[in-house]
Amino acid sequence: MKPETFLPDDYRPAEDEPFMNERQTEYFRRKLLAWKNDILAESRDTIEALQEATRNIPDVTDRASEETDRALELRTRDRQRKLVAKIDSALRRIEQGEYGYCEVTGEPISLKRLDARPIATMSLEAQERHERREKVHRDD
Q1: In sequence order, which residues have a C-beta less than 8 Å from that of residue 18 and are 6 or more positions away?
Q2: pLDDT tens series, the chain, 140 aa
Q3: Which entry of 26, 60, 69, 87 is 20 to 30 Å from 32 by CA?
Q4: What residue ranges do the domains of the chain occupy?
Q5: In this structure, which topology does domain 18-99 adopt according to CATH?
Q6: Which residues are registered as beta bridge partners of 101?
Q7: How far is the C-alpha of 128 from the C-alpha of 115, rounded, in Å?
Q8: Over the range 98-135, which residues count as b (16 or more CB within 10 Å of their CB) and which as e?
Q9: Is the backbone of residue 123 left (phi > 0), alpha (psi -120 to 50) or beta?
């Protein structure tokens, strides 16, 4: 196991340092782990709330409203479950030294894009091309 990289609290990756150096990698690793922990905490809270909210509501309208709220909450949790899988994938790419590089072109993904969307696997240009192709094929 490698030693932990020192990272000041106010550190932000900069374009003028080597791409995906130890500090940048550690910054994104911590960001991804914090995001994952937040999602998992929200999921635990949701499960507890759903277990507590299991009660018999006599009014049909109130019951329908609560069931709609539950369904929406469960859909949100399902999307977050998929997001956790993408976060885990990004963490694996960090461990393998592949994080931050476009899976299509192999070029570095901009630090701004990674900071905004740390699970990004494509550069902005490759993502736009992918979406245009997807739209064209969807319209067929």
Answers
A1: none
A2: 556 778 888 999 999 999 999 999 999 999 999 999 999 998 888 777 777 766 667 777 877 887 888 888 888 888 999 999 999 999 999 999 999 999 999 999 999 999 999 999 999 999 999 999 988 876 55
A3: 69
A4: 18-99, 102-139
A5: Four Helix Bundle (Hemerythrin (Met), subunit A) (1.20.120)
A6: 108
A7: 18
A8: ebbbbeeeeeebbbebbeeebbbbbbeebbeeeeeeee
A9: beta
Distance CA 139, CA 46 (A): 38
